[in-house]
Amino acid sequence: MAAKNNPTIRRRRLGAELRRLRMDSGLKSTEVAEWLMVSQPKISRLENGERAISPRDVRDLCVLYGVTDPQVIDSLMEMAREFGECGWWHAYGDIPNSVYIGLETDAASLHAYEPMVIPGLLQTPAYAQAVIEEALPEISVEQAAARLKVRMRRQHRIYDPGRPLRLWVVLDESVLHRVVGSPEIMREQLEHLKALGTEPHISVQVLPYTAGAHPGLPGQFSILGFADSAQTGVVHLERFTSDLYLEKPSDVQYYSVMHAHLQARALEPADSRDFITDATKAFVDTAGSP
Questions:
Q1: Averaged pLDDT, 21-40
Q2: Of 37, 140, 256, 262, which residue is least crowded by CB atoms under 10 Å?
Q3: Do residues 180 and 133 lie in contact, with contact meaning Cβ atoms separated by under 8 Å?
Q4: What backbone phi and psi angles, to 5 degrees, belong to 234?
Q5: Helix (H, G, I), strand (E, B), or coil: what is residue 172?
Q6: Residue 171: helix, strand or coil by DSSP?
Q7: Which one, of 210, 193, 221, lies nearest residue 283 by Cα?
Q8: Facing residues of 237 across strands?
C-alpha cells in the first residue's frame, strides 16, 4: 500500500504540516484550541495524526495561521477530505494500535528489539493466539479472534514480493525459553523463526544472557523507516494502554544508535540460527519426538 493510499500516513502528514504552519505563525497550541473552542489535547492529536479534521477546520486554521496561497490551502483541504477512506485493518472493527498498523503498512524498514516475545510479524498462528489470549485475559473470544486475524494479515508485508519489508530484529535470549502456549507451539514457532531468518530481507539476531547489561534493558522498541523522504522515521514504544510515537530526529537517531549497539552485542544471524536450533531441542525433549 503506497503512502498516498494510506489514511494514517495522510493524517500524520497533514498534522505535521498544520503543526509547522502554527509554529511559523508564532501561535501556541493552547491559543489555537481557545480560538477553535476545543481542548488543547485535541489540537495535539490533530497535529500527531491521531484524529481526523474536517476540510472546513483546515480552511479556518489556514486563515488563523495567515496562509494565503490558494494552492496550499486546497492541497491541505483535499488531504482532509480523504480522511473518510479507511485502511484494510478497519474491516476488523475497533482494533487497538491502528496508528502503528498504518505506519507498519507503509514502512520500508523496521528495526526492533524484543525482550519478551517473538515479534508479531514473525509469529505462527498458534503462538500469536497464545500470546493474545494469555497477555489479554479480559478480552472476549470475538475480540481475540479479530486481533489474531489482524496480526496474520499484517504479515503480508514481509511476504510482499514487490515491496518486502526490510526487517531487522534483535531478540533477548529469554524469548526463546519462555513457554508460550505449549512446548509443541514453541517448537513450531522457533522452527518458523529460524526459517524466516534465512530470508534475504529478514535478519534475526539473538542477544544471549552472556552479553550482560545492554542498552535494551529499558524494554521493547521499534524504529520504522520510510522510503518516502516526506515521512520521517518513527520510534514506537508499546505500552499497556497507550503507545508512544517519537518522531523528533534526535529521538530517532538515539534509538537507531541503541539498536546498532544491540546488533553489535548480539550473535551474528548465522550463529543466531544455530542458537535457535539448540533452543528448539529443549522443546523436542519436553514434548517428545516430532
A1: 87
A2: 37
A3: no
A4: -135, 130
A5: strand
A6: strand
A7: 193
A8: 244
- Residue 108: other Cβ atoms inside 10 A: 14
Residues β-bridged to residue 169 = 112, 204
Cell numbers 477512506: residue:
85
Query: Angle of helix 141-154 relative to helix 125-135, nearest 10 degrees?
Result: 140
Sheet holding 234-237, edge to edge: 202-207, 166-172, 109-114, 221-225, 234-237, 244-246
Q: Which residue has the higher pLDDT, 1 or 83?
A: 83
- Find out whether 132 and 125 touch, Cβ atoms under 8 Å: no
Q: Which three cell numbers stand for residue 281?
A: 531441542
- If you average pLDDT over each of 64-68, 132-136, 206-210, which comes out highest? 206-210
Summarised one tens digit per residue, pLDDT across range 169-224 is: 999 999 999 999 999 999 999 999 999 999 999 999 999 999 999 999 999 999 99
Kind and range of the H or E run holding 98: helix 98-106
246: which strand partners? 235
Look at 98 and 262; give whichever has higher pLDDT.
Answer: 262
**What residue has cell string 510515537?**
245
AA identity, residue 43:
I
Whether residue 289 has pLDDT greater than 60? no
State yes or no: pLDDT of 129 exceeds 50: yes
The pLDDT tens digits of the residues spanning 241-267 come to 677 888 888 999 999 999 999 999 999
Question: Residue 99: which of 61, 52, 139 has the closest Cα?
Answer: 52
Alpha carbons 244 and 69: distance in angstroms, whole number: 34
**In the structure, how many helices (H) and strands (E) does the chain have?**
13, 6
Closest CA to 12 of 271, 246, 286: 246
d(CA 141, CA 147): 10
